[in-house]
Amino acid sequence: MSKNIYVGNLSWSTTDADLHAMFSQYGQVSSAHVIEDRETGRSRGFGFVEMDDEGARKSIQALNGTDCQGRNLKVNEAQPRESRSDSRSRY
After folding, report:
1. Biased-composition ranges for Basic and acidic residues (predicted)?
2. What φ, ψ does residue 53 adopt, rounded to 5°?
3. Which of the chain's ends, N or C, has fewer CB atoms near its CB within 10 Å?
4. Residue 65: what pLDDT?
5. Alpha carbon distance 7, 55 (integer Å)
6. Share of the chain above pLDDT 70, in %
7. Rounded to an integer, what distance in angstroms lies between the CA atom of residue 32 and that of residue 48?
């Protein structure tokens, strides 16, 4: 079983490889992705890491609030994305 982890407050220069290396210290990482803006391709300052349950628990405890490239990381278990309603449909 694996868990999806939210990683927020990332530096603009953080890469997928940086995330993978950071979390692989705590367990088997299945995937690591920094989310980019669709139009500019620039990092949006957050990402997701998928890894084994035990590694996820350890990495959340170890990395939440720590400094990475001058930014204090926000690391927690990712929550399911809420469904979006079309904002234009109200009128």
Report:
1. 79-91
2. -55, -50
3. C
4. 96
5. 14
6. 91
7. 6
Let me know how long the chain is.
91
Averaged pLDDT score across all residues of the chain: 91
DSSP annotation string for 4-37: EEEEES--TT--HHHHHHHHHTTS-EEEEEEEE-
- The token pair at 90 is 């109200």
42/22 Cα distance (integer angstroms): 21
Fold of domain 2-79 = Alpha-Beta Plaits (3.30.70)
- Residue 87 binned pLDDT confidence (cut-offs 50, 70, 90): low
* Domain locations in the chain as residue ranges: 2-79
